[in-house]
Amino acid sequence: xxxxxxxxxxxxxxxxxxxxxxxxxxxxxxxxxxxxxxxxxxxxxxxxxxxxxxxxxxxxxxxxxxxxxxxxxxxxxxxxxxxxxxxxxxxxxxxxxxxxxxxxxxxxxxxxxxxxxxxxxxxxxxxxxxxxxxxxxxxxxxxxxxxxxxxxxxxxxxxxxxxxxxxxxxxxxxxxxxxxxxxxxxxxxxxxxxxxxxxxxxxxxxxxxxxxxxxxxxxxxxxxxxxxxxxxxxxxxxxxxxxxxxxxxxxxxxxxxxxxxxxxxxxxxxxxxxx
Length: 275
Description:
The chain is of the alpha/beta class. Helices cover 25% and strands 19% of the residues. The strands form 5 sheets. Strands 1-9-8-7 form a 4-stranded mixed beta sheet. Strand 8, helix 4 (169-179) and strand 9 form a beta-alpha-beta unit. The model has no long low-confidence stretch (mean pLDDT 94).
């Protein structure tokens, strides 16, 4: 079932099956990272400007931060000709099936042809890790960009699904049937927030960072209906520093872009620790 309005919600969050918090993190090396084309507003005027040495320093800092939280990343090697492969949330949606206690991934369907060839590398990686690999129906003409737009509600088998730019609404109907899960679909309204993970960051079962400007009224009401405490992020930090593109791997620590001071203050007010 895919829900698009608050009035359609016919379940209690606590009644949904429990979902264990993921205990592993994947990082892809930035060996071939570059800006070679423009497929989102943040890439505009930045073609060819990547400083490779700085990119590696930043990547190593992220790896060290996860390792310090006792979640050392599993590393995927980037591939020549795929400069955006380093953004490794977009190609798959990992899932856990409590019925058979099996882990799996649903392969994405990238919106841009520039990124289509990334997916097979991640399919092989997850197969080697023992994951069951699933695909959306072959006859479905729809885009789906994995964890860029599909975010699990912490602790519950409920998926938040962003659509409008990189993922098609129709993909969620198929995904709901494939995994037998409820999905709350949120329409994205601002090109700067082209993925759901740029404007919504679930922290724990009750809290989430939210960029209000990214959603329509129905979307904001859905978020408020299922998160007890949405934490609003200032637009300039969300839009220009991607403050919502953080990650809370343990329910306490939040890995977030440097310089998001107002967001960090709001996180601390709710007992989270910015990293």
